[in-house]
Design brief:
Blueprint: H1 11-19, H2 49-55, E1 59-64, H3 79-88, E2 93-95, E3 101-103, E4 106-111, E5 117-122, H4 137-147, E6 163-170, E7 173-178, H5 185-188, H6 199-204, E8 220-226, E9 230-235, E10 254-259, H7 263-272, E11 277-278, H8 286-290, E12 295-310, H9 320-329, H10 332-339, E13 344-346, H11 372-381, E14 388-389, E15 394-396, H12 401-415, E16 419-420, E17 423-425, H13 428-435, E18 441-446, H14 454-460, H15 475-486, H16 490-507, E19 510-511, E20 514-523, E21 526-527, E22 544-545
Parallel strand pairs: 1-10, 1-11, 14-16, 15-17, 15-18
Antiparallel strand pairs: 2-3, 4-5, 5-7, 6-7, 8-9, 9-10, 11-20, 12-18, 12-19, 12-20, 13-20, 21-22
Helix pairs in contact: 1-16, 9-11, 10-12, 15-16
């Protein structure tokens, strides 16, 4: 149980939690619970006495692999921004590293029978850091109304579910009315744009007031922020949550988020002791960290994947036999081993990462290695027995070695079955300024979200923002996805998601070679750090610095 989870177990909530115990991901050689027995890989050493004593002063130095570029939780759109915003702000719910949902500002919640109305009950001891006022239902309503205000232009508009309106029931209860049935609202309430800001500030100064000032009720207060360099936060002495032993949180007095974009520098910082934690380690650097006795390495089953997309409205991909032939031709095992150094799990050509407990373990229909003979048979059946030369390129933005290697290997694999095409490399800006969604054949990088349906919605429903990538959204799939989203019964929910995955695997326009593990490292004296599989948050409030084993 996470810190401060004093919630009750209403029947509806228990049913929901059973269905949204989405986890199953566990830290490999990682950390245990919020406070508990450490599971460490590598040899723990005392290290240099002077250096270590400095680190045990309560100052945690967290190496960020990219700059946050904003601390405003309403208008933010950068993953690294979400991470540091959560150090200062609270949400109605929180999720642990296994994606299980727990209490934060809300102590309990319940849904109507048709899951079109959700009521969240708020704790009475949470206060905003800047003025000490209690966090009330009116603040929740003001935050969500602002996020969903078209004039504000928040990237979170729509991301918190099909919200129609928000009503204040009383000071400590808020009712969220939905336009349609949706069973995943509690995990939506842990998302970045659900960080609660005070009504007083939003009404008087507008959401832009949050650009440079901390108005949260979270575990830390903003001390200093230099967008391209660092962010410094200090402990909120009145934070309302405690750990499972009843000890006050946060466990450190100060956190410095160090912006260190160069991977080699991040590795060297761990070696020389000038960083305590680093995340987002590239797989090609992983072995260097594993060889450091003073450092504990962690691999967490993650959700990032590099999809090969075939748009089903364009020849030759209108023929499912061609799409299946491409899937048979691609060697997922080689791509995982080469592009990701084997640090991940094989994909099954759908978007449900294995750490979701609703993700089915489907048979590897097209592999896991290449099946070139079957690919050639299907191409011949589709009229391409003499080979197929595409009159368009495979578009890729090689912003990571994984994307570049995936593109090159896919080209080699498909060439072996008589399919020829060129690779066109474009910048990330070019990809997003008009190329993405307008080409029949492309590779993109995607990271998963807390709710299992997000990417399926965004890519595979008519008119969705990213539907142009494959244009695959048959009525059968959309209806099944809607049923999965609205279901509260866990078995029904899981069965519907399995149907969605089977449809995508059989007929969809995606080849998903693998899901990448997230790679982290911490000094041996860092305790109780639970790496996040989604990269959307990194909880530092449970962390304590101690040489005690």
């Amino acid at each position: 149980m996470p810190p401060g989870d004093n919630s009750t177990d209403g029947i509806t909530r228990r049913l929901y939690l059973a269905s949204l115990g989405i986890g199953g991901a566990t830290a490999i050689a990682g950390c245990s619970g919020i406070s508990g027995e450490e599971q460490a890989s590598g040899n723990e050493t005392e290290g240099d006495e002077t250096e270590t004593s400095q680190q045990l002063s309560g100052h945690l130095r967290f190496g960020l692999y990219a700059p946050p570029l904003g601390i405003n939780p309403i208008t933010g759109s950068i993953i690294e921004g979400y991470v540091v915003q959560k150090w200062m702000y609270s949400t109605l719910t929180m999720r642990d590293s296994n994606l299980n949902v727990h209490s934060d500002l809300a102590t309990d919640w319940e849904a109507s029978d048709d899951s079109t109305q959700w009521t969240f009950m708020l704790r009475d001891d949470a206060r905003f850091n800047y003025n000490g006022n209690r966090v009330l239902a009116e603040d929740v309503k003001a935050t969500f109304d602002t996020v969903y205000d078209e004039d504000v232009g928040s990237p979170g508009n729509g991301a918190l579910g099909p919200i129609e309106s928000v009503e204040v029931v009383n000071d400590h209860a808020v009712q969220i009315n939905l336009e349609s049935s949706y069973g995943n609202m509690p995990i939506k309430m842990a998302k970045p744009w659900a960080m609660i800001a005070p009504k007083e500030i939003l009404d008087s100064d507008g959401p832009q007031a949050l650009d440079n000032t901390d108005y949260g009720s979270g575990p830390f207060n903003l001390k200093n922020y230099i967008p391209e360099d660092e962010i410094v936060v200090t402990a909120n002495e009145d934070y309302y949550l405690t750990d499972e032993n009843g000890d006050a949180l946060p466990g450190v007095q100060q956190v410095t988020g160090q912006v260190i974009e160069d991977p080699t520098t991040r590795i060297n910082n761990m070696r020389n002791g000038s960083s305590d934690i680093i995340t987002g380690v590239p797989p090609e650097n992983w072995s260097q960290l594993e060889n450091m006795s003073e450092v504990r390495t962690n691999t967490v089953p993650g959700g990032t994947f590099y999809s090969i997309a075939m748009r089903v409205t364009d020849e030759p991909f209108t023929d499912n036999r061609v799409r299946q032939a491409f899937k048979y031709a691609v060697d997922k095992e080689e791509i995982l081993a080469t592009a990701q150094q084997g640090l991940g799990v094989l994909g099954q050509d759908h978007q449900l990462a294995p750490f979701y407990n609703v993700a089915p373990d489907l048979p590897q229909k097209y592999g896991p290695g290449a099946q070139p003979e079957r690919a050639r048979e299907l191409l011949a059946e589709a009229g391409y027995g003499d080979g197929l030369t595409l009159d368009f390129p495979l578009i890729v933005s090689p912003t990571s070695p994984q994307m570049e290697k995936t593109a090159v290997l896919a080209q080699e694999h498909l060439s072996e079955v008589g399919v020829e095409f060129e690779i066109r490399r474009v910048s990330w800006d070019q990809m997003w300024s008009g190329i993405f969604g307008n080409n029949p054949f492309s590779i993109m990088s995607w990271f998963c979200r807390p709710e299992p349906d997000f990417l399926m919605n965004q890519h595979n429903t008519p008119g969705a923002p990213w539907a142009g990538e494959t244009m695959f959204h048959p009525d059968e799939f959309v209806e099944t996805l809607r049923a999965a989203q609205s279901a509260l019964d866990p078995e029904t929910k899981k069965a519907r998601y399995r149907e969605c995955a089977e449809i995508m695997q059989d007929r969809g326009g995606y080849i998903v070679p693998f899901f990448a593990s997230r790679l982290h490292a911490a000094q041996n004296y860092v305790k109780n750090f639970q790496p996040d599989p989604l990269a959307l948050r990194e909880r530092v409030e449970p962390v304590r610095l101690s040489n005690d084993v």
